């Protein structure tokens, strides 16, 4: 990661954060009535929307049904207006397929799929505005949407990116920091158990430096967990109040 004004001599990043500090994180659950679950999240200027359907009967060939667990289907997309440059192919491109697979692997590790044999759970996520940490924002939004749908999880799934600027580990990378290059990682963590649902490295990283990046990403994931847990508790309180009114 190039040091081009990304970290000042006083230890502040280009957006004013300290190395381990998250971007401002805001989230809402139950943003749509039609799906079984939905959520919207903002991590800095990155904005993501997630909707969940299921568990429901298998759609398509029944031969795809799994006898001992639910099939988790994930689809990732990027809105054409999400960046300053128009996206030519928001659906069906290689990047979207790769991100969809990563999301599928992440939530297969977290959802208690064995409770719903021969069924299907659909998770759709879309980046509405991209400014770094797209995968992580989608994971965090999808976690809230899955909880909103009442689907049991082993734990929250919380995700954050991290990278190295010379010898300094930075958490929750912005687009500017991602674009600068250098070693970067994205971590999806089950914070209570410390289990890694997914770890993605975007470049080679010597094992002597991996620990610092993982520590930064793990600390950021735990900070994300505190925010998501507060959002869930506030949503439950609001829904309970409405039902009791």
Radius of gyration: 18 Å
* Order of helical and strand elements: EEEEHEHEEHEEH
In round numbers, the mean pLDDT is: 91
Largest sheet: 5 strands, mixed
Order of strands, main sheet, comes to 1-2-3-5-4
Strand content: 25-35%
What oligomeric state is this? single chain
Distance from N terminus to C terminus (CA atoms, Å) equals: 54 Å
Count of helical regions = 4
- Give the uncertain stretches in residue-range form: none
Report helical residue fraction.
25-40%
Number of separate strands: 9
* Rough outline: globular
Supply the helix-strand structural class: alpha+beta
Concise overview:
The chain is an alpha+beta fold. The protein is built from 4 helices and 9 strands, in the order ββββαβαββαββα.
Please render the helix and strand layout as text.
Layout: E1 25-29, E2 37-43, E3 46-57, E4 71-78, H1 94-108, E5 119-129, H2 134-148, E6 158-165, E7 168-171, H3 175-179, E8 184-190, E9 195-201, H4 207-244
Parallel strand pairs: 4-5
Antiparallel strand pairs: 1-2, 2-3, 3-5, 6-7, 6-8, 8-9
Could you explain how this protein is built, in words?
With 245 residues, this protein is α+β, with helices and mostly antiparallel strands. It is 30% helix and 28% strand. It is built from four helices and nine strands, in the order E-E-E-E-H-E-H-E-E-H-E-E-H. The protein has helices at residues 94-108, 134-148, 175-179, 207-244, and strands at residues 25-29, 37-43, 46-57, 71-78, 119-129, 158-165, 168-171, 184-190, 195-201. A five-stranded mixed β-sheet has the order 1-2-3-5-4. Strands 7-6-8-9 form a four-stranded antiparallel β-sheet, sandwiched between helices. Strand 6 (158-165) and strand 7 form a beta hairpin. Helix 1 crosses helix 2 (134-148). The longest helix has 38 residues, at 207-244. It is globular, with a radius of gyration of 18 Å. It starts with 24 loop residues before the first strand and ends with a helix.
């Amino acid at each position: 990661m190039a040091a081009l004004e990304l970290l000042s001599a006083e230890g502040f990043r280009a957006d004013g954060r300290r190395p381990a500090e998250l971007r401002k994180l805001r989230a809402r659950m139950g943003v749509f009535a039609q799906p079984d679950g939905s959520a919207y999240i903002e991590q800095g200027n990155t904005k993501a929307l997630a909707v969940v359907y299921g568990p429901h009967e298998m759609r398509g060939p029944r031969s795809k049904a799994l006898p001992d667990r639910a099939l988790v289907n994930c689809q990732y997309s990027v809105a054409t207006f999400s960046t300053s440059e128009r996206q030519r192919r928001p659906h069906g491109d290689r990047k979207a397929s790769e991100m969809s697979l990563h999301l599928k692997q992440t939530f297969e590790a977290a959802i208690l799929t064995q409770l719903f044999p021969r069924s299907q759970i659909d998770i759709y996520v879309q980046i509405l505005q991209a400014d770094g940490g797209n995968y992580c924002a989608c994971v965090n939004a999808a976690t809230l949407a899955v909880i909103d749908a009442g689907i049991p999880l082993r734990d929250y799934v919380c995700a954050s990116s991290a990278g190295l600027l010379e010898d300094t580990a930075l958490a929750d990378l912005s687009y500017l920091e991602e674009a600068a290059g250098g070693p970067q990682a994205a971590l999806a963590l089950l914070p209570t158990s410390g289990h890694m649902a997914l770890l993605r490295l975007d470049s080679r990283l010597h094992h002597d430096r991996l620990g610092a990046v993982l520590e930064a990403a793990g600390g950021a994931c735990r900070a994300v967990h505190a925010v998501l847990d507060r959002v869930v508790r506030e949503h439950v309180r609001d829904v309970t109040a409405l039902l009791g009114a």
